[in-house]
Amino acid sequence: MVKRYLSLFLAVAFGSIGCSGDPPIKPADKPRMMRQMVLHSVRLANEQPSRVPERAEQFIAKLEEIKAEALDDNGPLYDKLIQKYQEVAVAAQRSPGSPEVKRKLAELLELGKQLPM
Questions:
Q1: Domain that holds residue 63
Q2: Is residue 93 part of a domain?
Q3: d(C-alpha 112, C-alpha 35), whole Å
Q4: For 58-85, how does the pLDDT look when each residue is reduced to its tens digit (9 = 90+)?
Q5: Which of 86, 71, 89, 87 is nearest to 34 (CA)?
Q6: How far lies 39's CA from each of 10, 54, 113, in Å?
Q7: Total count of domains within the chain
Q8: Could you tell me if 52 and 96 are in contact, meaning their C-beta atoms sit under 8 angstroms apart?
Q9: Does residue 89 lie within any of the structural domains?
Q10: Among the listed residues 83, 69, 88, the one whose alpha carbon sits nearest the alpha carbon of residue 29
Q11: What is the value of pTM for the model shown?
């Protein structure tokens, strides 16, 4: 019984070491993070078309935040992504899951793939 509590204590003690939060994202990693965000957002949009307008606004805000930091030369691509997210949101408000939305999501996916890996 003592062994069980000792092992539980050690697991909690070692598990809590270094758990002060996520490490800061390096500037060089942000384009890759944005690429993953865009690809993931397209996947989510295809799975849950009714939530596209809401999520598009969140992704637009994140892209604008990263673009404002001006840490890389992807600003024009971020502008295109923001514009495409806005188009997707408008189309999804009219008709979620429509062929128009799917076409714009495919265009968004292609733009996202232009970001560095």
A1: 26-112
A2: yes
A3: 5
A4: 999 999 998 898 778 888 999 999 999 9
A5: 71
A6: 39, 17, 8
A7: 1
A8: yes
A9: yes
A10: 69
A11: 0.76
